[in-house]
Amino acid sequence: MQFTTIATTQRGLDGLIASDIARKILSGQLQPGDILPSEVELCEQFGVSRTALREALKLVSSKGMLESRPKVGTRVRPRNNWNILDVQLLEWMNGMEGTLEMYHQFLEFRRVIEPHATRLAAINATSEQRIELSRVHEEMCAVAKDFDPDRWVDVDTRFHRSIFLASGNCFYAPFGNVLTTVFKWFISHSSKEGGMCLEDHHRIYRAIMIGDGDAAYEASLALMTASKHRL
Question: Which of 127, 132, 122, 140 is closest to 208 using CA atoms?
């Protein structure tokens, strides 16, 4: 595995190194169990000092992605050890294509939490939040008429984020912010062939607007069916 020299001396150098290493792990270029080159080799490849490198490795390790052992070296940890909902780790995923396994796992995760958040949104959304959801839904309909993949990913992500924020639950609300990167990543994949599930989104929207929690739950659950996505 070859790393690219980082041509900068700016502050935050350790973050750039950490991002490079983390993205190689996330993309599968570095697999669980792989051992990174030695510190000397990595310093040469990145063109940085040991201090900057060690800080970078410490940062990636704090996300559960690496572990260092004497006489063994720095090893990539299995995926189930990663702090997958860590904000910085999600930022490192930005712009990357996920694996099919990750898409399925994210959909399963959504099936557990999003229908409940949607039910709560139907019951608890404020007038301002319903107005905002209406704006997003209207934009969603406009984008669907003249389908643009990039615009659809953006508006669909905002639609689901609005639902979490409208739930009125302080534990659900952060998902609307934290998962934005993963939503975009998932929606981009699942809508590549024009799959928008627009009618399912209509049903979710209508149920929230009339305050029907049960209908909102069922509509959200229906959207989470794997066969409706490009999986």
Answer: 122
70 within some domain: yes
Q: Domain of 30?
A: 13-82
Residue in the block written with tokens 């700016």: 10
Pull the structure tokens for residue 213: 């929690």
- Picking from 44, 48, 46, 50, the residue whose alpha carbon sits closest to that of residue 21 is 46
- CA-CA distance, 188 to 184, in Å (whole number)? 6
Distance of CA 41 to CAs 47, 63, 153, 228, Å?
10, 23, 40, 47
User: Which pTM does this prediction carry?
Assistant: 0.74
Residue 21 falls within a domain, yes or no?
Answer: yes
SS3 label, residue 76: strand
Kindly state the average pLDDT of the residues 210-219: 97
Which residues lie below 8 Å from residue 171, measured CB to CB, with a gap of 6+? none
Task: Note the pLDDT tens digit of each residue in 20-70.
Answer: 999 999 888 999 999 999 999 999 999 999 999 999 999 999 999 999 998
CATH of the domain at 70: 1.10.10.10
